[in-house]
Amino acid sequence: MFINGEWVESSNEEVLDVKNPSTGTTMAKVQSASNEDVHRAIDAARNSFDSGIWSRLPPGERSNILLRVAELLEKNQEEFIKIETENSGKSIKQVSGYDIPYTIDNIRFIAGACRTLEGKAMAEYVSDGTSAIRREPIGAIGIITPWNYPLMMVIWRAFPAIAMGNSVVVKPASYTPLTTLKLAKILQDAGVPDGVFNVITGPGSSVGEEMAKSDKLEMIAFTGSTEVGKRLSVLGASNLKKVSLELGGKAPFIVFKDANIDAAVESAIVGGLVNNGQDCANSTRYYIQEEVFDKFVARLRERIQKLNIGDPQNPEIDMGPLISEAQRKRVEGYIEKGINEGGKLLSGGNRPLIKNHENGYYLNPALIYTENDNSAIVKEEIFGPVFTILKFINYDDVIRRSNDVTYGLGSSVWTSDITTAMRATRDLRFGTVWINEHVVVPSEMPWAGYKESGHGASLSPYSLEEFTYIKHVYFDLTGKVRKDWYGQIFKG
Ligand code: NAP
């Protein structure tokens, strides 16, 4: 683990196995933090923050250091690509073509944006005084991240935090801690002072909960499941810490009869299967207008048949395994439930045999048609390669059904009619509505949830504001001993 600029072992000498999901074999061991280690890391973050060594640096200086991080990451990207691919099971095509370059762009955006944040007022709102707004760092912050985008999610949460002058303790997911640990070295080499960026590893149920209960952390930024997000909200109440939550999704993908069906099918493949179907933005509920239903489903089936599933290290491969055996069983459980609740399996959902990877956690994408709007495959986040296909009749019907879930993260609409598109951007209750596209999130734009998909925002200037307190500063302009308005309350 990386605490206060040093590599340390767990005080209880416990370790965790880290697996390669494409083979099921152990590829590394990492430390499993004790409560004592958790507090050591929190103290390091707290002390570095209080010292002002980082928090008092002008934004431009912090920005330059973060830009150096981006540069070093770019220089060392081959190593990051290799480890991320091996540890997460994503295809090397995705990691090298999308995850890492995008993550580097995220860092560059955050580094630039932290120089532009401003207080929004400097004016006289009462006649005798000037008011101003300051945005200030919060202090020591706990960051807890999921396994689906190990490096990217640390950047999305920890980088706006440190860009604004906070110090952090990061706990990566136990399945995928390796690139976060590597990142700590890069931050140190780039000149981030000791204690500002600490990484501890170990189970969320002990390490994560201990962080959430700490009175020395003033905020927890969490990306992960809604279930754990709710638990952290409760634990964080111990000192009323701010809890920022980026949680699950159940994105609708709505195809109207006037859509370009070929374009919708191409996007459905990416939207549904990016990251092997383990993406909070994944299109998961495909509402297809009845007039084009057969055409869309036939083409989607055809397109899925052409995908290459196999060893993620092979650049020709489109899809690797799921993250773990537990995750594969969970997804298979949903497929079974979908069928038991009236759904019809149109294709896939079985385990492919991949030569030399027989123990990997592979699953063929499943296509299930259902008319049961209350089925678990329509309501709950599956987080795997499952396309739930539904039919709809008209606009009002599909918007109502799309909104009828507890989640509200991503959504997309496919149409060539501008009025339909504009109405849907108003009527869909999701943090993002894509028109004739799915998944794209530029670094400049917020990734934020409605309802049980959480609150707060990643990326964009909003993610930087998230890691600040807002302070009102008031300057008296009269210099008087007794201001005129005192008489409204006390006699002079
Ligand atoms: P998860 O099970 O909630 O775990 C996320 C993190 O929380 C891990 O580091 C985990 O540690 C830790 N954790 C688990 N139980 C905890 C507890 N009781 N207290 C504190 N920390 C705890 O989620 P996941 O399975 O890793 O990730 C998938 C989920 O993340 C999906 O729901 C997905 O939609 C969501 N996600 C959302 C976004 C977004 O931007 N909205 C982005 C990516 C992913 P261990 O690994 O040690 O269990």
Ends distance: 63 Å
3D shape: globular
Strand arrangement within the widest β-sheet reads 14-15-16-13-12-17-18
CATH topology title of the largest domain: Aldehyde Dehydrogenase, Chain A, domain 1
Mean pLDDT: 97
Helix/sheet category: alpha/beta
- What small molecules accompany the polymer chains? NADP nicotinamide-adenine-dinucleotide phosphate
| Rg measurement, Å | 24 Å
Secondary structure tally, helices: 15
Count of distinct structural domains: 2
How many strands appear in the DSSP assignment? Answer: 22
How much of the sequence is in beta strands? Answer: 15-25%
**Name of the CATH superfamily of the largest domain:** Aldehyde Dehydrogenase, Chain A, domain 1
Low-confidence stretches: none
CATH architecture field of the largest domain: 3-Layer(aba) Sandwich
Give helix % range.
Answer: 25-40%
